[in-house]
């Protein structure tokens, strides 16, 4: 039950503020959250078109020898390791926001990926993976003939 106040809009009313707070809290706990949980690894951007998809990830300092990209059907898995920055004993870290260490990200697509035509490039800390869909999975237009 929500109470309504009859205090004129121009006057301050603690009761009206409490009613507004009650409504805000009710919406907070009854509506689904619109935010997504942060991933346990680098953030990825994914674009999809009718020809496939493109994935990008910011991975500064990545050792390409420790990067593995695998494709099975409609699933792409990217494994890697970002190096931990070493500092001299005289320095002390004040803030560390850039993640380091092993990461694994698995992305599932609404089509089977053509692994033979897929490509990955790494330039200035940005990983770009191009994932074309299999020809069999592409949308096909069927002409309609009159009888």
Descriptive report:
It is a single chain. With 147 residues, the protein is mainly beta. The chain has two domains: 1-32; 44-137, Sandwich (Immunoglobulin-like), CATH 2.60.40.790. It contains one helix and seven strands, in the order αβββββββ. It has one helix at residues 14-30, and strands at residues 44-49, 52-58, 68-72, 75-82, 101-108, 119-123, 126-132. A four-stranded antiparallel sheet has the order 1-2-7-6, with no helix packed on it. A hairpin with a 2-residue loop joins strand 3 (68-72) and strand 4 (75-82). It is flat, with a radius of gyration of 26 Å. The N and C termini lie far apart (64 Å). 12% of the residues are buried. Residues 1-5 have low confidence and may be disordered.
